[in-house]
């Protein structure tokens, strides 16, 4: 399903294959020989999404650009089932396994692997040829790759990266943080009310 969002329609190369149950919304460019499988969602929420040649986005994956952070997938990138990418740049020949999460402002260097259920956190840069093991977390600048039981270290690095400030422009210590966050984000998402399906 293809949607015009904020007045911009997706552009899909004629050699690309997009499953009929995938959702492609807004300023999305899908390059030659790309494949987007059933249930995948690729949405440009104010920033652009670009898939270079031979990129694959598998079943039920989410690729979301934001007004602050566009998304770029380089040549020969594989995004596994149920993976999630929000506002990140992925260099060529990267493997993002099933269930991986890549957050806003992250950058993943060429030929890296982010394995099953691993996380690349906000504003984190993985150098080329990096590996994030199954279920581990890459966080900070310079990057630390930590096992999940090292929660205190991960939390310290996360606080410095300031997710609510960077993504939503809100102070983490605001007493009604979630009320402000959901109201502000809801106003932004309400822009989908004017989306128009273009592949009927």
Automatic annotation (TrEMBL):
SUPFAM superfamilies: Trimeric LpxA-like enzymes (SSF51161)
Lineage top rank: taxon: Bacteria
Annotated Pfam families: Hexapep
Name of the protein in question: Gamma carbonic anhydrase family protein
């Amino acid at each position: 399903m293809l949607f015009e969002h904020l007045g911009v329609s997706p552009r899909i190369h004629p050699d690309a294959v997009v499953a009929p149950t995938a959702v492609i919304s807004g300023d999305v460019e899908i390059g030659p020989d790309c494949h987007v499988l059933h249930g995948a969602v690729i949405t440009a929420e104010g920033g652009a999404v670009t898939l270079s040649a031979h990129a694959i986005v598998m079943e039920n994956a989410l690729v979301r650009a934001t007004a602050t952070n566009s998304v770029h997938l380089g040549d020969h990138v594989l995004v596994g089932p149920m993976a999630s990418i929000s506002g990140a740049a992925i260099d060529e020949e990267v493997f993002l396994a099933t269930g991986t999460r890549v957050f806003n402002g992250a950058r993943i260097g060429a030929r890296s692997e982010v394995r099953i259920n691993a996380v690349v956190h906000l504003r984190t840069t993985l150098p080329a040829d990096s590996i994030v093991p199954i279920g581990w977390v890459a966080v900070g600048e310079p990057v630390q790759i930590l096992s999940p039981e090292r929660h205190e270290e991960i939390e310290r690095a996360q606080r410095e990266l300031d997710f609510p400030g960077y993504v939503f422009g809100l102070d983490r210590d605001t007493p009604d943080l979630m009320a402000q966050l959901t109201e502000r984000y809801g106003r932004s998402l309400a822009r989908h009310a004017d989306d128009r399906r273009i592949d009927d």
